[in-house]
Amino acid sequence: MTSKTKGWLYVGIQLVFFVLIAYSSIFEWNLLKNPHNEFTKAAGIFLIIAGALGLLTSILSLGRSLTPSPVPLERAVLKTTGLYSIVRHPVYFFGLIFFTGFILFHAAYFSSVFLVLFFFFINMKSSFEEKLLMEKFPEYRAYMSRTKKLIPFIY
């Protein structure tokens, strides 16, 4: 399987996770009628907004290097400033933040199983992406040594 094909397969699986987390959260909320408490509802709204703003900022800062595939474009340039100076994959990080907020807002705690699986999938996808980035950008190894992968200051 070529890198391009594998990259688009990762994109497809990621979209399945988006739909799975969103629909399972809404389904769980409607089915179980989990009561909201004000803290989790407010935390959910905050995380949804923070995740959406972080996603937008991360995506816009990539400019012409942006692609949904983990395979870097020919014209790609290595981004290591702004949010990318804090975490190597801010798009993935803020996606996780957004969906955490979505689950909290809907009080859909069983759906968090899908979020945990999504984290492991994103970790695998980012490892594949990093292998390709190291091939394209020799300076990527140094960047990896000074910047956390998915969770700022932690991992």
Mean pLDDT, rounded to whole units? Answer: 94
Helix content: 55-70%
- Name the overall outline: globular
Number of domains: 1
Give the tally of β-strands.
0
Q: Helical region count?
A: 5
Structural class: mainly alpha
Q: What is the rounded distance between the termini?
A: 29 Å
Strand content: under 5%
Largest sheet: none
Order of helices and strands: HHHHH
Given as residue ranges, the uncertain stretches (5+ residues, pLDDT < 50) are: none
- What Rg do the Cα atoms give? 17 Å
In short:
The protein has 155 residues and is an all-alpha fold. Helices cover 66% and strands 0% of the residues. The mean pLDDT is 94.
Structural summary, described in words:
By secondary structure, this protein is mainly α. The longest helix is centred in the first third of the chain and has 30 residues. The mean pLDDT is 94. It contains five helices and no strands. The protein has one domain.
List the helices and strands and how they pair.
Blueprint: H1 3-32, H2 38-62, H3 90-105, H4 112-136, H5 140-146
Spell out the key features of this protein:
155 residues; mainly alpha; 66% helix
